What does this fold into?
Amino acid sequence: MSDKKTFYITTPIYYPSDKLHIGHAYTTVAADAMARFKRLTGYDVMFLTGTDEHGQKIERLAREKGVTPKEYVDNIVAGIKELWKLMDISYDDFIRTTEERHEKVVQKIFKKLYDQGDIYKGEYQGWYCTPCESFWTERQLVDGKCPDCGRKVELVKEEAYFFKLSKYQQQLIEYIESHDEFIQPPSRKNEMLNNFLRPGLEDLCVSRTSFKWGIPVPFDDKHVVYVWIDALSNYITALGYMTDADEKYRKYWPADVHLVGKEIVRFHTIIWPIMLMALGEPLPKQVFGHGWLVLEGGKMSKSKGNVVDPVVLVERYGVDAIRYFLLREVPFGADGVFSNEALLNRINSDLVNDLGNLVNRTIAMVDRYFDGLIPQPAQLEDVDMELRQLAVSIPSRVEQLMDRFEFSNALAEIWKLIGRANKYIDETTPWVLAKDPSKRSRLGTVLYNLSECLRMISVLVSPFMTRTPGKICQQLGIRDESLTTWDSLAEFGKLPPGTRVQRGEVIFPRLDVEKELKELEEIQQRAKQASQSNSETHTAAKEEARAADGAVQQERQDDCQQKQEANQISIDDFAKLDLRVARVVSAEAVEKSNKLLKLTLEVGGETRQVVSGIAKYYTPEQLVGKKVILVANLKPAKLMGIVSEGMILAATDDKGNLALLTVDHDIASGSKIS
Ligand code: ME8
It folds into this structure.
């Protein structure tokens, strides 16, 4: 057995959605870069990813497609694996929660927790909408009715198993308080302690009887195991936990890090550690909650039709450009906006101008001035020393930054060397040296230093980019693998003079940003239209809205809260609204509609017709003379065949009350609101 230090890293296991988007690729690319970095720096790495395949949602989608849930997921999982291949994800294992090696162990875990009294049988109570087959909490009902379809709901009680989270609450609080590194970044630690743990944990309902597509509770097969208990266990079932072949478990557990999106930190830092405490197993060393990639207008989600397809991007710009962008653009813990423009600009500036040019210029000059043979360095000047010192100082700084998951800063550090090397070319002007035969040895020193910097850069970028290092090495003529190791960065000068370079293709061709933007927008627009007209997507969206159990509902509420954060607008966005005071001149009911009123508004000197859904709350007479607030620059729309030129603002509460917004005291119609 090797005596290397081990490093176990996981991504979340993905729900089998038929199109993973760039946001999903984000977590996996980050985990992959870390796994590659650790391998490069001498660790024995275990990198796990996989799919989370059970649950009512899958059961329904499969039924609607007329296939079995297993057939449904098999098909999708194949696509997910394809995507990871395309993105060069170097996972060591891929676990599916429908595999026997997983299901059997989840049953053992459940049974053990039951036998020791940490799981007990009780009663689950909630509101149920039979037509929608959905459970709702009291708070979620609208007027006491199903928030989805508006029909009557009934109070149901269902036998269920519960997990005693409360029993371990104090132990977990103490653990988190005494292990600063456990939840990262630190803001997420405070959120967990203050919002969930300190207010007190309720026991968790960990079984369901309302659907079948799950792992049966081993001693009571009417019940299936709650999806999160099932899913979280993957991190140890994949290692052979509780089996005879548990070498990997003994070798790699506890995990060094679970990388997860911020909305699922809660499951990983509350339910999961409590499961492990109850099992008497060590806790993972760290759970790192990263931010979301959002598009202008909120988190990417398939049901919103605003996803960015990584396959399109990789096919157009290459896997390295996309991996680089994902890791460089946004600090890993924070949310970041994905935009085509930012991607294209990064490619042109960092990859084409900085890295691509450095490779091109260096190799071309070695080729031209030294017949393609890397020259021997001679006497060093201050500028050379400075470049060399910078080059050898980068690896340890990158290592420190990577240990804190600061991918973006680690890349920025490497780009300092690239920038410095480009500047070195401008300072030493090799093309001037080349004209003077007495400067030949100086020219050789300059080009040697540049070639060696390139070699070091190719090693430094190798965790982040999978194709570029090989291309650089090929152009430099490097065949000896010992020149591509992390250790080879310890000192400057490993590249043997006399190596024959090989000019190759430009590693990153320059992009015409305008043209690319136009084409990408067209592609994304077409995909959006296709997804909107695709009934399967509609069903998926509806399913999402109907997610049928209390825990999923809770999860969704949290999700909404975080989506709101991601949805914050700038003052410039707000300024796009033209809000005006308008006086209601007349109002009348709209024929055949019990909701709509047609209003004539005076807005300064102008008259506007607006159709508003307030008939249930105001009679036409109550409205005439009122000063209301109009969104004056809303695109006109037709409602029941009548053109509405704007919208008036109203507040609604969750009891179904509505009140129109009006002004505090009289002010001229047409006044601008800001
Ligand atoms: O949550 N930006 O699966 P999932 C960044 N099955 N990350 C994003 C993202 C975005 N726009 N959209 C999704 C699940 N993700 C569970 C996990 S683990 C035991 C069970 C991330 O497919 C998201 O934050 O919905 C999460 O970390 C991962 O993709 C999987 O999401």
Summary: The chain has 23 helices and 26 strands. Residues 12-15, 23-24, 26-27, 52, 231-232, 234, 260-261, 263-264, 292-293, 299-300 surround ME8 (CB under 6 Å). The two ends are 70 Å apart (CA to CA).
